[in-house]
Amino acid sequence: EDDPCLQRYMHAREMETVLVRPNTLIETLQTQAQALAANLMQPLRSYLPRGVPVEKLSGDAALLDDAREKWRRKRGTLTPDAVNALETAHRRLCSCLKAIDLLVYEGFESFFNELRSFAQKEQSVDDGKFLHSPRFNQLWSSVTAHNARSEPILHPKQEVLCGILLDHFANHGADTKAIVFAQYRRVVAGIESTLNRHKPLINARCFVGQAASKGSAGMNQLEQRQLVERFKSGDGDCNVLVATSIGEEGLDIGEVDLIVQYDCLSSHIRTVQRIGRTGRKRNGRAIQLVTAGVE
User: Fold this and answer.
1) Dist CA 192 CA 205 (whole Å)
2) How confident is the model at residue 279 (pLDDT cuts 50, 70, 90)?
3) The dihedral formed by the CA atoms of 223, 224, 226 and 232, expressed in degrees to the nearest 10
4) Which end of the chain is more exposed for a tag (fewer CB within 10 A), N or C?
């Protein structure tokens, strides 16, 4: 992009990073879930690095994998009950850590669904005794109480995203379009639902790949082309695409004034491809949302 030969064909691109802090609910549930995880971690302590905190395990699955290999290599010196207890603690801890990651990165709904799935599986283990343990019961009671609320519980990033897009369309009118990028389809679907609460100013549509995944049938090539044409038409029927990686390259999406990266990527190439969707025919803006303390 610094090549003088290319700059004559390019427009300015305003780059911005927005730091998003977790709200009180997420912090409270995260603290309760980490307390449960720390309790589940106790039987595995002798197989983990000394002093490793439970927070470290969320970002380093290799630590738990290594611990499991250690006791499996010692299987001959352990009783069957001891091996079973270690395997059960490992499985429960992995599920708890996954739920915490979903809470932090995706929000309450994904956290609730993961815990509910875990609870359903635990019903058949030890007559569901673990579900009545004080720490799990405290967490589950809190989660189900919040889930009973009539209003959806938004991730802080969704709240910030709504503010950014509402401000953008209020200031630029109908002659503007935006793309929001996220890695996972369930996140894309949640963003679309949240943004469409602000119709008619915002009219968002999911833009995903062809392959089917859990809870999503995907979009075939015809559906993708039709949606792109609706987006390019500029008639307001679709002024925001909420896209997975399918929107990063290879398709003529047209003129886009605003790009919002909902999550952070480790791939610099993919990041450049995303922000390259704006600033083609006139000045554009690219925003990166970052969750404080975890991204």
Assistant:
1) 6
2) low
3) 160
4) N
Burial of 208 per CB tally in 10 Å (0-12, 13-18, 19+): buried
Q: What is the average per-residue pLDDT within 144-167?
A: 94
Query: Which of the residue ranges 105-119, 208-222, 274-288 has the most confident prediction, judged by mean pLDDT?
Result: 105-119
- Specify the DSSP class assigned to residue 153: -
Give the pLDDT score at 100: 96
pLDDT tens, residue by residue, 55-76? 889 877 899 999 999 999 998 8
Alpha helix (H) ranges present in the chain? 4-7, 24-41, 54-58, 61-73, 80-105, 108-122, 134-147, 156-172, 185-195, 221-233, 268-275
The two counts, helices (H) then strands (E), for the chain are 11, 6
Both tokens of residue 155? 């991730």
The HSE-up count of residue 217 (CA atoms within 13 Å, CB side) is 5
Among positive and negative, which fits the CA dihedral 72, 73, 76, 78? negative
Give how far Cα 291 sits from Cα of 7, 256, 270, Å: 33, 25, 19
Tokens 């969707």 belong to residue: 277
Is the pLDDT confidence value at 6 over 50?
no
With CA atoms as reference, report the closest residue to 154 among 118, 182, 190. Answer: 190
**Residue 247 amino acid letter:** G
Residue 153's closest CA among 97, 199, 193?
193
Q: What does pLDDT average to over the chain?
A: 88
C-alpha–C-alpha distance, residues 208 and 247, integer Å: 8
Query: Could you tell me which of 12, 5, 18 has the C-alpha nearest to residue 275?
Result: 12
d(C-alpha 157, C-alpha 243), whole Å = 16
Q: What is the CA radius of gyration of the chain?
A: 23
Residues paired with 196 in a beta bridge: none
With the C-alpha atoms ordered 81, 83, 89, 91, is the resulting torsion angle positive or negative? negative
